[in-house]
Each structure stands twice: as structure tokens, then as C-alpha cells.
């Protein structure tokens, strides 16, 4: 199966790979796995006092589409509020990357990772 040019670009030049200190109170971590294939994605968001995402990093153990989806998402969430970030859907990601149907679950992983990170942030705020 051929990957789209955008997938190849993100796969060969992934943006924002890495990690923040998960004990930093301004860092939210979302870790999700895809039951379909066993791939794992970790997305971290650095969130300021106004609830705006200042920076994002990811580490994905998975296929090219999963890496591209998470790379794309780190670019999209920067400068967004956490509420805006949770409106990003897997459909947006799949369209941008022109993912074929069998790779849709890779984009779902990225959507779920955003939601997991935001939930982590909210639970840290309440603790
Ligand atoms: Fe093997 Fe996603 S199915 S990397
Ligand atoms: Fe499973 Fe891409 S995340 S094949």
C-alpha cells in the first residue's frame, strides 16, 4: 500500500518527537494503544495557566500512519486551548493525511491521545 506524500513527510521528518518531564505539573500525558495492531502512542502537552497548549511532544511505537498522525497533531494543538484541542477529530487527521480506510484506526489513536492528555491535565488540576 502506498503512503501519501504527507504521511511520508511526517514519517521521515517527524515534528516534536520526544518527552517532557511527566512530573512537571504543567505537563499532561496521554498514553493510548490500538487494540487492532498493538501500536502505542504517547502524547504530551505543556499547558500554561490560561489552559493554552504551549508545546507538544510525542513518541509513537507504530506504523507510518500512526507516526504521521501524532506528528501532525503536535503541530495542530500548539496555541490551541485544551477545549479547542479536543475538537480535533480522527476524520480531520485522516483527511489531511489522505489515510486509506485500513489506516483510519491510526488517526483514531491520535484523537484518543489528545483526549487522554486533556483528561490527565484535568485530573491533575483537581488533585
Ligand atoms: Fe504494525 Fe501498526 S500494525 S505497526
Ligand atoms: Fe495500527 Fe497504524 S496504528 S496500523
Automatic annotation (TrEMBL):
- Gene3D superfamilies to which the protein is assigned, alphabetical: 3.90.1010.10
Q: Which InterPro entries match?
A: ISCU, NIF_FeS_clus_asmbl_NifU_N
- Protein origin, superkingdom: Bacteria
Q: Any idea where the NIF system FeS cluster assembly NifU N-terminal domain is?
A: 2-126
According to its UniProt entry, the function of this protein is described as: A scaffold on which IscS assembles Fe-S clusters. It is likely that Fe-S cluster coordination is flexible as the role of this complex is to build and then hand off Fe-S clusters.
Q: Which family does it belong to?
A: Belongs to the NifU family.
Q: What is this protein called?
A: Iron-sulfur cluster assembly scaffold protein IscU
Q: Which organism is it from?
A: Agaribacter flavus
Gene label = iscU
